[in-house]
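debug: dumping io for the single-chain case to check the tokenizer round-trip. Nothing else runs in this session.
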Amino acid sequence: MLQPKRTKYRKCQKGRIKGLATRGVSIAFGSFGLKALEPAWVTAKQIEAVRMAITKAMKRQGKIWVRIFPDKSVTTKPAEVRMGSGKGAPDYWVSVVKPGRILFELDGVDYSIALKALKSASYKLPIQTSVVVRNDFKI
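debug: decoded output
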């Protein structure tokens, strides 16, 4: 699964997801994309599940670009531990996704296969998404 090789600090603050995405909002690599419509934390496991679903639906033809990376650590304390005594240990990694962000891109397959692949992938995510097509693509 995806996670950074090293980080400046082991533990991140929670933060808030405000506003719309300004970076990664247009299709840059492929012809089809999966765009986020809601703010959320997308975990490394969810990203990998989406990648596998797309690969399976495309029957391993074409190319996939994963446009998000889980670089924020989420900490948890063990079960049945009393309050206090510091912050928990890093448990898993998430990517902070704002509305408008392109999450995945595809190319090398026709429109119907790409639509089916991205539709099946959207079920693996905790947010609503939409399928977008590059402006100069002829359907």
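debug: round-trip ok. Residues 14 and 74 are 8 Å apart (CA to CA).
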